Amino acid sequence: MSSTVINVKNISKSFGKIRAVQKLSFSVESGLCFGFLGPNGAGKTTVMKMLYAKCIRDKNGESEMDIFGYDPDKNELAIKYLSGVVQQENNLDDELNVIQNLMIYSKFYDIPVKTAKQRIEYLLDFLELSEKADSKIKELSGGMKRRLVIARALLNQPRLLILDEPTTGLDPQVRHLIWDKIRQLQKQQTTVLLTTHYMEEAFQLCDCLLIMHKGQNIMEGRPKELMKENIEKYVLEVFDTEAIHQVQDDMLQDIIRVDHTPGVIRYHSDDIDVLKNMATSFLEAGNYHIRQTNLEDVFLRATGRQLNDKQ
Fold first, then answer.
1. Are 155 and 106 in contact (CB under 8 A)?
2. Rounded to whole angstroms, how far apart are CA atoms 57 and 14?
3. What pLDDT, on a 0 to 100 scale, did the predictor assign at position 309?
4. Is 139 helix (H, G, I), strand (E, B) or coil?
C-alpha cells in the first residue's frame, strides 16, 4: 500500500529580485515516479535542490518540507543518506577510471570496501557498463558517462532517486535503456523524482506530473488524465494559412478551439471526421497534418508557445 514519503507545502525561493519558486506545494507517494515539467527558468532544478538541502528555502511561517520524516533545513545529512542525486552535469573525475570513481564515492557513505566492490560490480552490470570498468572517464561516450553518474547515485541503495534531466543530449537507444532501468528501480520501491524537457519521457515514466511555469504549479496529475482534461483529442495543423481562410462558418461549428501561431493554424476537435472533412475540402496534400494531440500540446497550452526571458 502506498504511503506519502514527500510532503511539501508553500515553499518559495528568491535569488535577489528573481522569484524562482512561488508557494509551491506537492506530495509524492512511495515507489512512484513524480515528474517536474516546465520551460527553462521554471524553477524545476531549484525545487530539486531544496529537497536535498543544496538550496535553502525562503523563511516564512507557512512553508513545510517533510522528506521521509525529515526537514531538509534541519536534517540535511539524514536526507542525503537516503537519497541518490543525478545532477544535470556529469561531474566525474576524468583522471580516474570507472571503478575508482565509484570506490571514492562509496567512502562518503562509509560503505565497507568488500561491500562496495560487490555493489559496484552489480551496478556496472545493471547499467551495462561492466566492460568499461577499467576505462578512464575521458574514454567514455556521453551515454556511458550518464549511466555511470546514475550508478554512482545508486551506490548507497537510496530510497529516493533524484534525476535532474537525466537523458538530455543522449541518443534514443541510451535514453530508452535509462528508462528501462528507472522502471526496474520503481519495482524495487525506489521513489523517483524527475525533471525533463522530453515530453515522451514524462509521459512514459511519470506516474504523476507537475507542470511548472515561472516558479508556480499550474497543472498537476497523471499524464493521461492531464491530456483527457485539458486538451481536445485531435488537431489539424494547417501550414497554408491563406487557403484555410476559405473555410465556411458552418464547418467550424464542431471545432472547439483555434490556435494561431506564425505560419501555422491549429484546429482542435474531439471529432476527427470534422477535421478530415475540412482538410480535404479546402487544403492540398502536404499543406496540413491531422494527428492525435499529445502531452506537448497540453504543455504548450499551459505555458504558452512564446519563449520566456530565460530560454
1. yes
2. 8
3. 45
4. helix
Q: Give SS3 for 305.
A: coil
**Mean pLDDT across the chain:** 89
H/E run at residue 82: helix 76-82
Nearest to 23 by CA among 70, 60, 67: 60
133, 124 contact by CB (below 8 A)? yes
Contacts of 62 (CB under 8 A, 6+ apart): 9, 10, 23
**Cell numbers describing residue 88:** 544535470
How far is the C-alpha of 309 from the C-alpha of 311, rounded, in Å?
A: 6
Q: pLDDT-derived band of residue 27, with 50, 70 and 90 as boundaries?
A: very high
Structural domains in the chain, sorted by start: 4-222 (3.40.50.300), 232-292 (3.30.70)
DSSP state of 126: H
Q: In whole angstroms, give the CA distance from residue 5 to residue 68.
A: 5
Exposed (0-12), middle (13-18) or buried (19+): which is 308, by Cβ within 10 Å?
Answer: middle
Summarize the confidence of residues 236-257 as an average pLDDT: 70
Supply 272's cell numbers: 476527427
Query: Hey, what amino acid is at 33?
Result: C
**Which cell numbers hold the place of 150?**
546514475
- Residue 17, CB-side half-sphere exposure with 13 Å CA sphere: 0
Which pLDDT value is given to residue 235?
Answer: 95
